[in-house]
Design brief:
With 65 residues, the protein is of the alpha+beta class. It has one helix at residues 38-56; strands spanning 2-8, 13-21, 28-35.
Length: 65
């Protein structure tokens, strides 16, 4: 899983991308977002990581992540 986070001066927003390459294939899953507030952007990243893990390991609950 690879996370990129940066601040866009022109947009005055924190932007992020989150990608996970599927080993052995050329396909990958990517998500992205943007927020004015850094903590909100980081919370979005954390929620997206949890979503991806729950999807990958269907038996995991949010508390287990």
């Amino acid at each position: 899983m690879k996370i990129n986070l940066w601040y866009s001066e022109s947009m005055k927003q924190w932007r992020w991308t989150l990608c996970e390459e599927t080993s052995g294939t050329y396909s990958s899953e990517c998500h992205s977002g943007q927020r004015e507030d850094l903590r909100e952007a980081m919370n979005d990243v954390a929620n997206t990581v949890e979503y991806m893990l729950k999807k990958k390991y269907k038996y995991l609950e949010t508390e287990d992540v």
